[in-house]
Design a protein that fits this description.
The chain is α+β, with helices and mostly antiparallel strands and about 575 residues long. The chain contains 16 helices and 18 strands. It has helices spanning about 25-40, 70, 85-95, 130-145, 160-170, 185, 190-200, 210-220, 230-240, 255-260, 405-430, 430-435, 445-490, 495-505, 525-530, 535-545, and strands at about 10-15, 45-55, 60-65, 105, 110, 115-120, 150-155, 175-180, 270-275, 290-295, 300-305, 310-315, 325-330, 345-350, 365-370, 375-380, 385-390, 400. The strands form 4 sheets. A 6-stranded mixed sheet has the order 3-2-1-6-7-8, sandwiched between helices. The chain is elongated. The termini are far apart.
Length: about 575
């Protein structure tokens, strides 16, 4: 009986055409069995495997399952015959790859279902023109699948068509072309993703090497069996960590940020946060704090970049019911390892500052919420101003990094936060703001205090009613616009996936990260272990929410170095 699970998904396409008779078929069986045996040897990870053969006809030999014992004998009675039907096999695999088991989370990494093709790459045809046409049809179908799912081709046989198989693999995101001897190591890939998810907080986000990964693994006894090949794979996974996200690595909608940053119920960009009381996302944060870098419409309204540099959206309740929020505000500072600067760092005016009082005045502190590879950064100041500044660009430094543990910095930051809360109170509840300002002179229980309290409660009630009405109207208007937007999307259905995929590929970006397990507000290690056993229902909601969001425009950045710092 098959066991249905929601784990790492892999769909195999096995070439059983007449071109595989002899050595090709034996090699194909050897590769397939070595991978399945590798999965079976790692009981800690459930691999969701589907098997499809293509030759004289396309057959679904195994639907998604983790019944490895059955798969090890699935080719016992298979014979090679007929022409290759690779295009039809790709069409048969498509529903599996885009089903509810398409992807899964391993810590902060989102793993899309993999398509593994084991073939010699033969395409039958009466003449060269027919063969070329069939190859183009296969490549077209591969590009459709590859826009979301990695394609791995394993070349077998006496004379495999490497060019054609390579074209199929590299038409996908992060595709691979493997030789026979590389198959057993490929079976270790999900295991190495698990290892990478456990040490991501121990390795700097920039300027780290294979030796740093090796050192991080030595500190944990559970990784004693890791080989040098595994270490190389783990290093690549950490280097390309943004390829495993389900969201763009930075806030990419200026309109959303401008719309919501004035909402007193939401925390400002640059606020430090950690997992909150309502956290259904397992170890997605790697038990580390993060920084608010933007806003989103809908339920997941805060975009957070964790100190591992992974980015996800979360819900933050705007009306004070924080027990239903996914994240909560914390005062855990961003401490650098080998990085010069990172998202979440505190900064002040530097030696090359020339932007007048854009920061609200000398000695004021801002928070970095975006770091670019061209040595420029984006800063949110506590007066509400945002700007991009040079940090090494043309050897100029508009800002300098503050020591978050310095007493003067901590005191200045506390005063700025107090001013911000006072401003929020003033804008939302002006009467209570008056009581807040005069709390030292007005004594609780006096006639003046009671009078202001009564007036404040009336204003509060009216304000809440108006806010709810405005929000309801906004949701209705947003729903209408989304319906219109959906119609436009349907008209361009064939282009959207490819365009959004290109937009969301930010694998080259390097962002800040820290190992801060001993600082104030960090999560206990046992809490992290328990979180791995929690339901992944929240991750499903998060994934579906993101798939329905449209990409916005990136923050406009000044290309002229002399304009850095201007809004």
């Amino acid at each position: 009986m098959e066991t249905w699970i929601n784990g790492v998904s892999v769909a195999f396409l096995l070439d059983t055409s007449s071109s595989m008779i002899g050595e090709g078929f034996e090699q194909m069986k050897k590769v397939f069995l070595s991978i399945i045996q590798g999965y079976s040897d790692e009981p800690s990870i459930d691999h969701c495997v589907a098997v499809i053969s293509f030759g004289k006809e396309v057959q679904v030999l195994q639907k998604y399952s983790n019944d490895y014992s059955n798969m090890l004998h699935i080719l016992d009675d298979i014979e090679c015959e007929g022409p290759s039907s690779l295009k039809q096999a790709l069409m048969a695999a498509y529903p599996f790859l885009r089903s509810g088991l398409n992807g899964s989370f391993i810590g902060p990494f989102y793993i899309n279902a993999n398509l593994v093709i084991i073939s010699g790459g033969d395409v039958s045809g009466e003449d060269e023109n027919e063969i070329n046409d069939k190859q183009r049809e296969v490549l077209s179908m591969a590009r459709l699948i590859g826009s979301e799912n990695p394609i791995v081709c394993v070349q077998v046989g006496d004379n495999p068509d490497k060019r054609f198989l390579g074209g199929i693999a590299f038409s996908s995101r992060y595709g691979k072309l493997l030789d026979i001897y590389e198959a057993p190591q490929f079976a270790r890939y999900p295991t190495n993703v698990v290892v990478a998810s456990k040490i991501i907080g121990s390795v700097s986000t920039t300027k780290y090497s294979v030796d740093d990964v090796r050192e991080a693994l030595k500190s944990k006894e559970e990784f004693a069996s890791i080989t040098e090949k595994d270490i190389g794979d783990i290093f690549k996974i950490l280097t390309n960590r943004h390829a495993y996200g389900i969201f763009s690595c930075q806030s990419n909608s200026t309109d959303n940020d401008l719309q919501w940053e004035g909402d007193p119920g939401l925390q400002p960009i640059g606020t430090r946060v950690r997992r909150g009381p309502c956290w259904p996302f397992s170890n997605q944060d790697s038990c580390m704090p993060g920084t608010v870098i933007g806003y989103r419409n809908g339920y997941s309204n805060l975009l957070v970049q964790w100190d591992t540099s992974m980015v996800f959206p979360y819900h933050f309740d705007k009306y004070g019911f924080h027990q239903i929020s996914n994240v909560e505000v914390c005062d855990v500072p961003r401490v650098l390892q080998t990085e010069k600067i990172a998202v979440g760092c505190l900064v002040q005016r530097g030696p090359d500052w020339k932007w007048f009082d854009q920061d609200g005045g000398n000695d004021n502190i801002g928070t970095v919420y975006k770091v670019k590879r061209d040595n420029t950064i984006f800063v949110q100041w506590f007066n509400g101003t945002k700007g991009n500044y040079r940090f090494g660009y043309d050897n100029k430094y508009d800002v300098k990094v503050c020591n978050p543990l310095d007493e003067n910095v901590m005191k200045k930051l506390e005063n700025q936060q107090r001013d911000w809360h006072s401003d929020v109170l003033k804008r939302r509840f002006p009467v209570f703001h008056l009581m807040f300002l005069h709390a030292e002179t007005l004594k609780k229980g006096t006639e003046e205090w009671d009078k202001l309290l009564d007036e404040g409660l009336k204003v509060n009630e009216n304000t809440s009613t108006n806010l709810n009405t405005m929000e309801a109207y906004g949701e209705k208007e947003d729903s209408t616009s989304q319906s219109s937007q959906t119609e436009d999307e349907l008209l361009d259905e064939g282009q959207i996936d490819q365009e959004n995929t290109s937009t969301n590929q930010n694998t080259g970006e390097d962002y800040g990260e820290q190992e801060n397990s001993n600082t104030k507000g960090s999560q206990e290690e046992d809490e992290c272990d328990e979180s791995e056993n929690e339901s992944d229902e929240g991750q499903k909601i998060q994934k579906n929410t993101l798939q329905n969001q449209n990409s916005g425009k990136d923050y406009e950045e000044q290309s002229d170095p002399n304009s850095k710092g201007e809004e």
